[in-house]
Amino acid sequence: MIGKEKFQFYVGQAIDWLIHFLPNFISAILIFVVGWWIIGKVDTSIKKAMAKKNYEVSLSSFLRTLFSLGSKTILVIMVAGQVGFQTTSLAAMIGAVGLAIGLALQGSLANLAGGVLILLFKPYKVGDDITVNGYSGKVKEIQIFNTVLVLEDNTAAFLPNGSISNGPIVNHSKQSFLIGKIKFVLPLESDHESALAEIKNLFQQDNRIFKNPDIKISIQRFTTMQVHYCAYLKCSPTDLDEVIEEAKIQLLKFYQMNGYSL
């Protein structure tokens, strides 16, 4: 008889607990399902908005992943609180873990933040010629943590985005044209007017050099034997290196034709 009474007592307790817990359990399931659906819809909207604004694929993927992890973590905390867990302790534990990870990965997080800023504000893009942190080269890839530059000797330099975003960036491909400088000298006693006209004519034979406005040549300084000049050649950023090399060749021909020494 005593065993039956205990059994009935435990059954009653279980029924009372189920009656008390079942509404919260059902609410938690509804919150989870609806919340997961909303997160999916918002993620799809973010993806479409970033694709419309031509955001970099790596930036779009990173921001969507960050949103997804953050929102799903909040959703799990809400569901846990609905079924009776102490969410304050859970949130504090997650915060402590996040703080520990952040302190351990300070450098990496700085590079991560720098990568996001670079991809978001686009001071340069893949294919641009840039100078950063003392390195000059063509941008091969923009990663979340690093920017990959191909240098003049064809080596690849992996530069941390944190230092790039906090320092000066010189983008040689940003403008529609660049101005190349060619420095040369003429003997003091030579006919400078005709010599400069001949040099300018040699430069103008290169169709890649913009002719409007006309090529500018200015005096830099005088010495006892020579006059130092500088010619300014305007051209497309992609043509600059080849234009400068061709101009040097034409200048060498001029020196040889007139018997001048370099």
Describe, in plain words, how this protein is organized in 3D.
With 262 residues, this protein is of the alpha+beta class. The chain folds into three domains: 2-104, Orthogonal Bundle (Helix Hairpins); 123-171, SH3 type barrels (Roll), CATH 2.30.30; 178-258, Alpha-Beta Plaits (2-Layer Sandwich). It contains seven helices and eight strands. The chain has helices at residues 2-52, 57-82, 87-104, 106-121, 161-165, 192-204, 240-258; strands spanning 129-132, 135-142, 146-151, 156-160, 169-171, 178-187, 216-222, 226-235. β1 and β2 (135-142) form a beta hairpin. α6 crosses α7. The mean pLDDT is 81.
> Helix proportion of residues, in percent?
55-70%
Major sheet: 5 strands, antiparallel
Q: Please give the count of helices.
A: 7
Q: Give start-end ranges of low-pLDDT stretches.
A: none
**What is the terminal separation in angstroms?**
120 Å
| CATH class type of the largest domain | Mainly Alpha
Can I get a quick summary?
The protein is an alpha+beta fold. The protein has helices spanning 2-52, 57-82, 87-104, 106-121, 161-165, 192-204, 240-258, and strands at 129-132, 135-142, 146-151, 156-160, 169-171, 178-187, 216-222, 226-235.
List the helices and strands and how they pair.
Elements: H1 2-52, H2 57-82, H3 87-104, H4 106-121, E1 129-132, E2 135-142, E3 146-151, E4 156-160, H5 161-165, E5 169-171, E6 178-187, H6 192-204, E7 216-222, E8 226-235, H7 240-258
Antiparallel strand pairs: 1-2, 1-5, 2-3, 3-4, 6-8, 7-8
